[in-house]
Amino acid sequence: MVGPNGNESSATYFVLIGLPGLEEAQFWLAFPLCSLYLIAVLGNLTIIYIVWTEHSLHEPMYIFLCMLSGLDILISTSSMPKMMAIFWFNSTTIQFDACLLQMFAIHSLSGMESTVLLAMAFDRYVAICHPLRHATVLTLPRVTKIGMAAVVRGAALMAPLPVFIKQLPFCRSNILSHSYCLHQDVMKLACADIHVNVIYGLIVIISAIGLDSVLISLSYLLILKTVLGLTREAQTKAFGTCVSHVCAVFIFYVPFIGLSMVHRFGKPQDSLLPVIMANIYLLVPPVLNPIVYGVKTKEIRQRILRLFHVTTLTSDP
């Protein structure tokens, strides 16, 4: 293969090894992983369906929740089918362009999810600290624009990554250490200077994930300051509306930060740990988010129970 810069490259495809050291167990591990994937898809589709069909839930908080659920489905779907093919059918090869597409999808969707979590934090800040202005600040058209901005931001920040990878010659091994294509993993196979990739990756993390996490923390500091001045009953109600979002923030950011730390400071011989953390990062948030919102959010919980109650009644003879 000849790269765009004229250098010879042997990377017409990459090899995904799945779980290094656990090749014999991969076939059986695929069953619980597939079950978790199905739970994630069904759970998030249920959230979207409930919010879509219940007009009383057409509010900013629940619309942002729908965006989060949609992104969770896309993130897990961008990696899990190929992972299942590796574990069940030993389909370990992935074409160069397909790898770049998967890499772009995973990273851009993660950036979009971080933006949506920030928007949800802003929604909680306005609702608790400025309740009289909430309806005028977060109108439906404005919420739609925020969702579109999240998509554009995530895609624009990650678009240069596959372009940079395309410029690199690959004359070493074409074996990737993960179950799917990650920028950190692919660029390490290049036999050229990758400082541009490393620096841009750090810029993206700081300007997107880092900035978002700081602003989310600031939002909750301001919320906490306001809530502490309320009555006990009002405090309980205010905290109750924030618990689900705080859980979603931790579920998203903790695996992401852990994966980033392992990639930058982990030892080369620890090949299994970053792979497991990468799988956790893409699968656990989509599984847990609908469970957390279904359990902690009264309106969602009541409608889920009503939905399954009606389904049970209609299926009875």
TrEMBL record:
CC terms in the record's Gene Ontology section: plasma membrane
InterPro entries in the cross-refs: GPCR_Rhodpsn (IPR000276), GPCR_Rhodpsn_7TM (IPR017452), Olfact_rcpt (IPR000725), OR51/52/56-like (IPR050402)
Membrane topology of the entry: Multi-pass membrane protein
GO biological process: cellular response to lipid
Signal peptide (UniProt feature, chain positions): none
Domain G-protein coupled receptors family 1 profile: 43-293
Compartments reported by the entry: Cell membrane; Membrane
Main location: membrane
Gene Ontology terms for molecular function: G protein-coupled receptor activity; olfactory receptor activity
Keyword Cell membrane belongs to the record: yes
Key words, A-Z: Cell membrane, G-protein coupled receptor, Membrane, Olfaction, Receptor, Sensory transduction, Transducer, Transmembrane, Transmembrane helix
Transmembrane segment boundaries: 27-50, 62-80, 100-122, 143-165, 198-224, 236-256, 276-295
Entry similarity comment: Belongs to the G-protein coupled receptor 1 family.
Functional note: Putative odorant or sperm cell receptor.
Protein name as annotated: Olfactory receptor
Organism: Myotis lucifugus (Little brown bat)
Lineage, highest ranks first: Eukaryota, Metazoa, Chordata, Craniata, Vertebrata
